[in-house]
Amino acid sequence: MSGGDMLDFEIRPNPTPVSAVERAALLAAPGFGRVFTDHMVTIRYAEGKGWYDARVEARGPIPMDPASAVLHYAQEIFEGLKAYRLADGSITMFRPEANAARFVDSARRMAMPELPPELFVDSLRRLVDIDRDWIPEGDGASLYLRPFMIASEVFLGVRPSNEYLYVVIASPAGSYFSGGVKPVTVWVSPDYTRAAPGGTGAAKCGGNYAASLAAQAEAIEAGCDQVVFLDAVERRYVDELGGMNVFFVYDDDTLVTPPLTGTILPGITRDALLTLAAEAGHRVEERPVSFADWEADAASGRLREAFACGTAAVITPIGRVKYPDGEFLVADGGQGPVTTALQQRLVDIQRGRAADEHGWVTRL
Ligand SMILES: *Cc1c(COP(=O)(O)O)cnc(C)c1O
């Protein structure tokens, strides 16, 4: 069966779930990406057959042949979004259909089959529903959902795989806001780029992350938190961080973020912030920002704030910028008022404390 809405899930509850006592202990301080829930979703795909065998089952290892295509040629894509427990006890997700659409775009770029968006959203609902007790309480806490797809055909030839496995796992995540987000120092890599025109920069694929790790290691080596990538052609313009988009706030109340020209991941947080900033009365522009201008505008005081954004940490202020020949501060290196206001506004919508005027919040 290939029609997404026609595919029914077989539910096989985990016969040995984590006990309530143990779960409570794990949820007290889950950190990020280390604790996992009792279940996972799996759906298979075969050329000529379409999507089949949709299941909610006990989370566990995926049996894999060593010649599975993904292990050799990295045909893999993923998504990341969160489920929240609101103050009234209801459970929501933020714009899951936007993740579904991006998953389709990523699949196309990586020559993978398109998972019907309604099947994608349904798979998330099923997993959150069965593992709802794993959604941590507390401001900023959430259940991080990680849908991904891998090429599973056992074949070493170089061509798109004929078989795929789609999986969703879930991981409780602690608050990022306890004590506020500390501004980060970013490293401008002199050696590495993230994405070239015509490449896979706009696809959410593991390969992009693999390629960014040496640059990230260089950033840590230089005493920085994150790497910021410049464009691969001229090495002049700011693209984005390894896993977050970037915004600049100027003294004339303009917010600027680099345009989506194919080398930048189209972030859903980025998209939401463009809307919210315009609503808050800021002028918003999607245009290239050169690194030279970033430094000059920081020096002149024209640049008031800079921040990175993405689902995992929502908004992270950028306080300091380092490169091989020097470094500079953005304003006083702390978190600015526009950053704070936008973060508050977005989180209030996500948490159901502000009206959802854009239909971004999906209730379970
Ligand atoms: C996922 C991701 C982002 C942020 O996207 P969101 O939809 O806001 O989470 C930004 N850059 C890269 C490279 C990413 O992989």
From TrEMBL:
MF-aspect GO terms: L-isoleucine-2-oxoglutarate transaminase activity; L-leucine-2-oxoglutarate transaminase activity; L-valine-2-oxoglutarate transaminase activity
Enzyme class: transferase
Keyword list, A-Z: Amino-acid biosynthesis, Aminotransferase, Branched-chain amino acid biosynthesis, Pyridoxal phosphate, Transferase
Pathway this chain belongs to: Amino-acid biosynthesis; L-isoleucine biosynthesis; L-isoleucine from 2-oxobutanoate: step 4/4; Amino-acid biosynthesis; L-leucine biosynthesis; L-leucine from 3-methyl-2-oxobutanoate: step 4/4; Amino-acid biosynthesis; L-valine biosynthesis; L-valine from pyruvate: step 4/4
Cofactor(s) demanded: pyridoxal 5'-phosphate
Transmembrane segment boundaries: none
Family in the record: Belongs to the class-IV pyridoxal-phosphate-dependent aminotransferase family.
Record's protein name: Branched-chain-amino-acid aminotransferase
Organism (species): Micromonospora haikouensis
Phylogenetic lineage: Bacteria, Bacillati, Actinomycetota, Actinomycetes, Micromonosporales
